[in-house]
Amino acid sequence: MDGIVVIKCGGSTVEELSADFFQSIAAMKDMGKHPIIVHGGGPAINDMLVTMQIKPEFVDGLRKTTAEVLETAELVLSGKVNKKIVTAFQDTSKTAIGLSGVDGDLIKASPLNLDTLGYVGNVEDVNQTLLLHIVKTGSIPVIAPIASDINGGKLNVNADVAAAAVAQAMQAEELMFVTDVDGVMIDGNMQETLTVSDIDKLVNDGTIYGGMIPKVRAAADSLTDKLEKVTIANGNGKNRHENGTLKGTTIIKEKRAVH
Ligand SMILES: Nc1ncnc2c1ncn2[C@@H]1O[C@H](COP(=O)(O)OP(=O)(O)O)[C@@H](O)[C@H]1O
Ligand SMILES: CC(=O)N[C@@H](CCC(=O)OP(=O)(O)O)C(=O)O
């Protein structure tokens, strides 16, 4: 299907997203585009873990996930954050349908590295038929990144990774990561464009760290002939192009590839 746009809402910004933000996503449907939302919720998971006296731990932006952490992540992502986003669409003309990767085996994953990361998933498969069905009903899918483990059970998938996998599987025309910074910064300056080789260098030298690592890696991995650029932008909506779309850092394969 043409016109698929995947929007990843970071947990860093989900509490701050305005009614306008949700209205503009709903309006995309009327313009023949088909938005699919994938969301995170890292800060809310951290808060819950702290109340349980469990210390959040990350390796290169991925959460170390014990069985207890997995249960907490699911509770927060599928319960609290997912329903918050679905509810935000009640004030628009469109209906949102919330589900996690577990529902209808929407996202199947395998363990990335049980020894170092625990129950963290690497996406193996996305149920395109189910997503297409939801999209065709006129609704907006809102996806929490907990996946079915192909070996049985569940896995915690980083939301940036899940969004990129959904974009790839659905042959999306656009992928946007909405977060709490204007884009990728180098020495305090927002970068308008970065290439895949720039990203490797910036991760290696530590300019890109923490939660920005899975974002830029997922962006780089999802580039195809159809998806020529991926944008990382601020959810506060202050930086916009003239046509109203969010302005941020655009990631492309190589310098000449932008149209
Ligand atoms: N070079 C960079 N430019 C901008 N932000 C960066 C950079 N390197 C690391 N970050 C961090 O990445 C964060 C965004 O990732 P994260 O907190 O995981 O957000 P989200 O919840 O939206 O996925 C920023 O708030 C910032 O602290
Ligand atoms: C494996 C892994 O890192 N899972 C993430 C899933 C949520 C997420 O990615 O949330 P943000 O988009 O807010 O970072 C986590 O447990 O925090």
From TrEMBL:
Keywords, comma-separated and alphabetical: Amino-acid biosynthesis, Arginine biosynthesis, ATP-binding, Cytoplasm, Kinase, Nucleotide-binding, Transferase
EC number from the UniProt entry: 2.7.2.8
Gene Ontology molecular-function annotations: acetylglutamate kinase activity; ATP binding
Cellular localization per UniProt: Cytoplasm
Residues annotated for substrate binding in this entry: 41-42, 63, 156
Residues the record marks as site: Transition state stabilizer: 8, 215
Domain Aspartate/glutamate/uridylate kinase: 4-234
Keyword Transmembrane attached: no
Domain of life: Bacteria
UniProt cross-references to InterPro entries, sorted A to Z: AceGlu_kinase-like_sf, AcgluKinase_fam, ArgB, Asp/Glu/Uridylate_kinase
Pathway recorded for this protein: Amino-acid biosynthesis; L-arginine biosynthesis; N(2)-acetyl-L-ornithine from L-glutamate: step 2/4
Described purpose of this protein according to its UniProt entry: Catalyzes the ATP-dependent phosphorylation of N-acetyl-L-glutamate.
Family: Belongs to the acetylglutamate kinase family. ArgB subfamily.
Name assigned to this protein: Acetylglutamate kinase
